[in-house]
Specification:
- The protein has 496 residues and is mainly alpha-helical.
- The chain has 19 helices and eleven strands.
- The chain is globular, with a radius of gyration of 21 Å.
């Protein structure tokens, strides 16, 4: 039930008072950290410049629409500037949810010219090709999805200003949509039959041209180069972007999926990815917290998250190589490329100690080099044949994956490593002009600048660092990720 529907005059008046109060706050955050103020202000300026009035674009020129997992990470940073704006960010995205529960990876702004980004709305044809799947009629979207970080973001946004959240009925309104989103993934996308979610396009996993996709993509016949025009090359160096061959295969997969009416389970590409599934598990834990806040038990969701953690270990863990690997559902084989995706399950609070220890060793060992040869986490194996420090997800360090790994290290008591990463990420973000991604060795900026999630997550880490005293152990920011709720004890890691 939407609790705002029966709020009555007192609830409405209180919401108006709180919203008006938030509207009189200064442009920079109402709770700025004591240090470093310059970084805080510059990150806030990026988010202000990229704000459209209802959502935040990742980049005004390169990515001029709303992206799904970008908005989740952006909301996590926006909560330190305006909890109301952070709530609006997620509400705008979820308003474009399809009838079958999927949250599309792009929500298009009709004011942006069609040739500003490809694939554009006239490629996806969501309102017609997606009619059977319940695509919205009033807004144009893509037909694929991105990682489900949204419940985690919603919980953290609520925690930033619980009084405003309760007055607006924020959680009561987003909870049914988030539950439907998870239901779609758990039921429609369990293509391997073991309980894990499969992605049906590399763009869905978010790490578009990772070498982890090379083997399954090799069986996809690329669309002819003359059939599409890449708008991304107008704003970024070709050597930093996916190749034309990669793009041709992306377009072929998206075209085939669209022409099937966005029906799941029939394509040439289906991969169980550790990062995508870990983020779903983390968001199931968060959805349990949200349920409890709304007066419902969260026990079943916590139990599902822990069961899926076990399936993730059973199905995607390689003990000999000390990390998680993607599984090609079509062939049934693991994909042997070491990508940062295989480290993201460190985020999970119920991950067994054996896996935690091995992941930390892999993270800091020669393949990723954190703390020795690199200050940030590369997106791909430093020793891999396909490693390229500048080409998108084939080697550069990204700030969202660094943020997730910092959360994971702190969740499992790796305080010194988490502190070092929490200090390096905002510093390098600011020095790079809030770049989309950076060379993992040098911090040289790559891709576009003034990238929204880079600014947002730097802002979040600045707040966490400012509130953390030496020797304090797990920071407040880490604790809130999987904070304790009274219907179930928070276990942290299983320390063995």
């Amino acid at each position: 039930m939407d609790r705002t529907a029966q709020a009555g005059p007192s609830r409405v008046d209180r919401t108006a008072q709180l919203t008006a109060a938030r509207g009189t706050e200064p442009d920079i955050a109402y709770d700025p950290p004591p240090v470093p103020c310059d970084l805080h202000r510059s990150a806030a300026a990026v988010l202000e410049a990229n704000w459209t009035g209802a959502s935040t674009v990742p980049s005004k020129r390169l990515y001029p629409h709303q992206w799904s997992w970008d908005s989740a990470f952006i909301a996590i940073g926006l909560r330190h500037l305006s909890a109301l704006r952070a709530q609006t960010e997620l509400e705008t995205l979820l308003a474009a949810q399809w009838g079958d529960g999927r949250v599309p990876h792009i929500v298009f702004n009709p004011a942006v010219p069609l040739d500003a980004y490809f694939p554009s709305p006239d490629f996806w044809r969501s309102s017609t090709a997606g009619r059977t799947a319940g695509a919205p009629r009033t807004v144009q979207t893509s037909g694929i999805v991105q990682p489900p970080v949204h419940a985690l973001a919603a919980w953290l946004v609520h925690r930033a200003d619980p009084e405003l959240s309760r007055a607006r009925g924020f959680l009561a309104r987003v909870y049914p949509r988030l539950a439907a989103w998870h239901r779609y993934l758990l039921h429609r996308r369990d293509l391997g039959g073991a309980g894990l979610v499969s992605v049906v396009h590399p763009w869905e996993q978010g790490m578009d041209n990772s070498p982890c996709w090379d083997a399954p993509l090799a069986r996809v016949r690329p669309a002819p180069a003359r059939s599409f025009r890449r708008a991304d090359l107008d704003h970024g160096a070709a050597e930093d972007r996916p190749t034309d061959l990669d793009y041709g295969r992306y377009v072929r997969l998206a075209t085939d999926y669209r022409d099937r009416g966005y029906a799941d389970g029939h394509g040439d590409f289906a991969v169980e990815d550790p990062s995508f599934n870990a983020l779903l598990i983390a968001s199931e834990h968060a959805l349990a917290r949200i349920a409890h806040e709304l007066g419902a038990p969260g026990t079943a969701r916590h139990a599902r998250a822990e069961r899926l953690t076990g399936v993730l270990v059973e199905r995607l863990w390689d003990p000999g190589r000390g990390m998680f690997f993607c599984r090609d559902v079509v062939t049934g084989e693991q994909i042997g490329e070491r990508g940062v995706s295989g480290l993201i399950p460190l985020l999970l609070p119920a991950l067994p100690r054996e896996q935690v220890t091995a992941l930390v060793a892999t993270l800091t060992g020669p393949h990723f080099g954190l703390g020795t040869t690199t200050r940030l986490v590369p997106s791909y194996d430093l020793l891999g044949e396909s490693f390229d420090p500048h080409r998108y997800w084939r080697g550069p360090a990204w700030f969202n994956t660094g943020w997730l790994i910092e959360r994971g290290l702190r969740t499992h008591g790796e305080r010194e490593r988490a502190d070092a990463l929490a200090e390096a990420l905002p510093a390098i973000a600011a020095a790079s002009g809030f770049a989309e991604y950076v060379d993992p060795y040098t911090g040289e900026p790559c891709g576009t600048r003034d990238f929204a999630w880079t600014a947002a997550l730097a802002l979040d880490l600045v707040h966490g660092t400012a509130g953390r005293a030496p020797g304090a152990g797990v920071s407040p920011a880490a604790g809130e990720t999987f904070g304790k709720s009274s219907d179930r004890d928070s276990r942290g890691g299983e320390r063995g």
